[in-house]
Design goal:
Blueprint lengths: L3 H6 L1 H11 L1 H5 L1 H37 L5 H33 L18 E4 L15 H7 L3 E2 H8 L5 E2 L2 H20 L3 E3 L4 E3 H6 L2 H5 L5 E2 L4 E3 L4 H6 L5 E2 L6 E10 L18 E11 L4 H18 L4 E5 L11 E9 L4 E10 L3 H6 L2 E2 L11 E9 H11 L7 E2 L13 E2 L1
Parallel strand pairs: 4-9, 8-14
Antiparallel strand pairs: 1-11, 2-3, 5-7, 6-7, 9-10, 10-15, 11-12, 12-13, 13-15, 16-17
Helix pairs in contact: 4-5, 6-14
The chain binds one RNA strand through helix 4 and helix 5.
RNA sequence: GGAGUGGUGGCUGAGUGGUCGAAAGCGACGGUUUGCUAAACCGUUGUAGGCCUUAAAAUCUACCUCGGGUUCGAAUCCCGACCACUCCGCCA
């Protein structure tokens, strides 16, 4: 949620920032300001009347206590009450309209984010390591998976329909090894606190994080209990501190969590769906930080590096993209994508997305902090990054480290998690 | 799932229709005292919004889990939701 005061005081700056990502949203600002002025006018009127009415109460009390007759005052008070009742509906309506209009506006893109859409992403760092040169045609991961029985695609479909897979044997173990490796690295090396989360959230929670807007058609939902299954750990990690005022010294908070993520992938059928590329349920390790506003720029860079460190350790080449304003998610001011190279498919796979949501999510979820015990509460900046999404890492790993004889060399850092296994095959 | 009890400020805990935004204690913050620490003493101590503003102060409104209702007036009465605790049942 954007700050209405900021829109009021610097409407032009807000409009021009918004135009970079969504000209239609920018065009609603003038209407919003008109609504806001109207709302405040009504508020003032009604508050003045309430003050007037409140003045009667002690008088009535005094007369009654003295045993007098308060009929006249009661009549006056009733008259004002009627006036208030007449105005109240209007105020409520203006309030609701303003919140609705404000809720539809996405975050303002950061200054260094370029305008444009999906095709306007900018590569911001060279390749992390040279792409491996193969002296044989590298196979796609689904073939490798079938050869070594790492994933059972057919039976996954049998159990839960298309888009669900069963990891089997070394495949299941490999995934668990990667999860442990990632979590351990974030906890031990990067200083995060590990969190074990519920996998379903109430409507209130997904609304507070803004995900109901962005993910509504994507989320699996249990109608009976009105719970939403995580499309990512992010909404859960935002809601941990919903409605709280964090005490001085609490920031930064650094959380990491492994969760399954469920996405309907509505409308995506047929596109990039082969193998593990796009499945309805996948595992992910998430990084999340609550930081001081002045630290969020640095934090985003750090979190990107923390995700990259994992790929470096696994010897998987990747590149970094700064997304254009029109392509970043609703709550984000800036997003960096990390794409790993998939030699078997010959394309880049998004394995992480790191976003600085500035104060947008914090305002919406009413999360604040104090710098000093007596200071006014302020909104912290919230950031999230995948670190990393499992199926695509598994794909890239298998394809990158496959050998001519069909075996796969296991990268050194995860061998301890696989009982010392050095080669799959 | 059935029965009961209850949800008050950072915490504990008073308050059952009228100057209650809410006693008291603890904590926190500022100060006095002090060689230092502690103790003692004095003071301050919620949030949001409106108005006015360069800003603050002052002032007004709302908030005693949340949402409705009764009343001139609600922390207090009524209804609903959510949550917690106790007992019974069921269960990994």
């Amino acid at each position: 949620m954007l700050d209405i005061k900021r829109i009021r005081t610097e409407p032009d700056a807000v409009k021009s920032a918004l135009t970079k990502r969504d000209p239609e949203a920018a065009a609603t600002i003038d209407d919003l300001l008109t609504m806001d002025a109207d709302r405040r006018k009504r508020l003032t009127e009604i508050e003045t009347l309430k003050a007037e009415q409140n003045r009667f109460n002690p008088q009535i009390a005094a007369i009654k206590k003295a045993g007098g007759d308060a009929t006249e005052l009661l009549a006056q008070s009733a008259q004002i009450k009627a006036q208030i009742a007449g105005l109240e509906g209007g105020v409520r309506e203006s309030d609701a309209m303003q919140i609705a209009a404000l809720s539809k506006l996405p975050n303002l893109p950061a200054d260094d984010v370029q305008a444009g859409g999906e095709s306007d992403a900018v590569e911001i760092a060279g390749l992390s390591r040279p792409l491996r040169e193969f002296d044989f045609p590298p196979k796609p991961h689904w073939e490798i998976c079938e050869t070594h029985r790492l994933v059972d695609f057919e039976r996954g479909t049998k159990l839960s329909g298309s888009g669900f897979v069963i990891y089997t044997g070394v495949g299941a173990r490999l995934q668990r090894a990667l999860i442990s490796f990632m979590l351990d690295t974030h906890v031990s090396t990067h200083g995060y606190t590990e969190i074990g989360l519920p996998y379903a959230l109430t409507r209130e929670s997904v609304t507070a994080s803004g995900h109901i807007v962005k993910f509504a058609p994507e989320m699996y939902h249990d109608a009976e209990s009105d719970l939403f299954f995580l499309p990512t750990a992010e909404p859960a990690l935002v809601n941990i501190h919903r409605g709280e005022i964090l005490p001085p010294g609490a920031l930064p908070l650094k959380y990491t969590a492994h969760t399954p993520c469920w996405r309907r992938e509505a409308g995506a059928a047929g596109k990039d769906t082969r193998g593990l590329q796009r499945i309805h349920q996948f595992d992910k390790v998430e990084l999340f930080r609550y930081v001081l506003p002045e630290d969020s720029e640095t934090a985003l860079a750090e979190m990107t590096n923390e995700a990259c460190a994992l790929l470096d350790a696994l010897e998987i080449p990747y590149r970094l993209l700064r997304l254009a304003a029109g392509d970043i998610s609703f709550a984000a001011a800036k997003t960096i994508d990390i794409e790993a190279w998939s030699p078997g498919m010959g394309k880049w796979l998004e394995v992480s997305s790191a976003s600085n949501c500035t104060d947008f999510q914090a305002r919406r979820a009413d999360i604040r902090f104090r710098r000093e015990a007596t200071a006014k509460p302020e909104f912290p900046h919230l950031l999230n990054a995948s670190g990393l999404a499992l199926p695509r890492v598994v794909s890239a790993l298998l394809e990158t480290h496959q050998n001519a004889d069909g075996t796969v060399t296991v990268p050194a850092p995860i061998r301890p998690y696989l009982g010392g296994l050095a080669v799959i095959g």
